[in-house]
Amino acid sequence: MSAAGRGFVPYISSWSSEGVLASELGVLPGGRLAYRDETPCDRDSDGILWRRVSSRPGQGTPELGRVHSGRQRRAMLRLLCQVCGGPADRSGDGVLWLLKDDRDDWPGWPEGMAATHPPVCMPCAHVSARMCPHLRGGHIAVRVRDARRCGVYGSLYLPGRPAQEVITTPDDPRARWLVAAQMVRVLHGCSAVDLAPLRSPRSA
Ligand SMILES: [Zn+2]
After folding, report:
1. How far apart are the CA of 193 and the centre of ligand 1, in A?
2. Cα of 84 to ligand 1 centre, how many Å?
3. Is the confidence at residue 129, as pLDDT, over 90?
4. Are the CB atoms for 177 and 161 separated by under 8 Å?
5. pLDDT at position 198, please?
6. Which residues have beta carbons under 5 A from ligand 1 (an ion)?
7. Ligand 1 center from residue 122 Cα (angstroms)
8. Is residue 29 pLDDT above 80, yes or no?
């Protein structure tokens, strides 16, 4: 179904029919979280354990603020548009990202930023800039030449400590105690760009 037919529902958003699947966690000898009934699909190529979620896009009501782990991971892995799930826009200057304007965070922002939001295609960048609540305070379009995978965002269950949400790299010793929920890429080679006017026969 098209995004237009359902209103504005990004590809990576969860629907009310989707949730975390009940799974029992245990600890392997030597200290490492694992599912009791784990299969090879539960870990990525870095050996990171991933959250199990159901997938029923389009069923129920959209929950725009809740990211779907499976679709976020797929979009980040393949550099798909976070809004429509098609290929993200790419030019000689890199892949297009639309970011909340946090340029006061550090000099040279967003260079080195750890991104959990996947990139976008050009038509969806225009729609998002107008309609995304978290971009209303200001946004910036950026071409990114080097957006390498750097780790995951997820829930850390260190023994004897309260669970907390963190970003870790695969070589972080804490990664053994993590259940990942989102893939993270770090943005390098960033250049701010103006969103190109859309060429649409309907608006000509
Ligand atoms: Zn798109």
Report:
1. 17
2. 4
3. no
4. no
5. 61
6. 81, 83-84, 121, 124
7. 7
8. yes
